[in-house]
Design brief:
The protein has five helices and nine strands.
Length: 257
């Protein structure tokens, strides 16, 4: 089945050369990463995840550990034991509408740098404090890119304001498409999320696989594969239509739509 792949990199996270079956993530017009913090960042990020058996999002999205009021983990805003530098407790608002609110102005909020650091420490993934802000920028940008890919799929339907109900981290569950990629290209995602979207009263599940690309200029590169799970005939139809469009664009680029 077809999929949509967003190439999101931290050097500017949008790959402006991407085309065809791998369009760049459309979020934002500028790089969200402060390049004054760039030197040594990639090696630091690698060392952060080296103490675990798998690299994955440090914010635990497992349903059993979320706040039932907002379906997000409850993370402390206080400094962690042994922390040397005070980190910001400000939380950035996303562009993703909440499904539990009727107003379009209610959006999901991202963890603050302090919450992000605490999440890393809780999972025995200590990170140099000077790089936490950069890691939060990348985390937030990946989520914005994923939501923009969801909106591309949702544009096929009449609902004008899809909203995110909740998300679930499933790093140990390899999706069927990821297994195909592993068999064909020898690569596996480092993380997986299932996002549950409210399509004007209908719940639709999306599967997002996160891949690590080749680093560029000492900065990490990530690829997102976003598509609706084949839970019903409508999602199957969407995937089939996208597969046909991708094939036409690849083999008949000059043909009319």
């Amino acid at each position: 089945m077809s999929d949509k792949t967003a190439d999101t990199r931290a050097t500017c996270p949008v790959d402006h050369s991407a085309s065809g079956s791998q369009p760049a993530a459309p979020h934002g017009s500028g790089c969200p990463v402060d390049h004054t913090k760039k030197p040594g960042f990639l090696s630091s990020l690698t060392n952060t995840t080296a103490s675990t058996n798998e690299a994955k999002c440090p914010v635990d999205h497992a349903e059993s550990q979320v706040n039932p009021l907002n379906m997000m983990p409850t993370l402390a805003q206080t400094m962690h034991e042994g922390q040397q530098t005070a980190l910001s407790t400000d939380r950035e608002s996303s562009t993703i509408p909440r499904a539990d609110q009727s107003s379009d102005t209610h959006k999901w909020e991202y963890p603050s740098p302090q919450q992000f650091y605490n999440a890393l420490a809780r999972k025995n993934m200590p990170a140099p404090e000077e790089y936490v802000d950069v890691m939060v920028d990348i985390h937030n940008f990946l989520n914005e890119g994923a939501w923009n890919e969801v909106l591309k799929w949702e544009s096929r339907h009449e609902c004008k304001m899809p909203r995110l109900i909740r998300l679930q981290g499933r790093p140990r569950d390899i999706s069927p498409l990821a297994r195909i990629y592993d068999w064909r290209f020898g690569v596996r995602p480092f993380d997986r999320h299932d996002w549950f979207v409210d399509r004007c009263g209908k719940q639709v599940r999306y599967v997002i696989d996160y891949y690590e690309g080749e680093p560029k200029d000492d900065m990490p590169v990530f690829n997102l594969v976003v598509r609706p799970a084949i839970d019903d005939f409508s999602s199957l139809t969407d995937r089939a239509k996208q597969m046909w469009q991708d094939a036409k664009q690849k083999y008949f680029p000059d043909s009319k739509k």
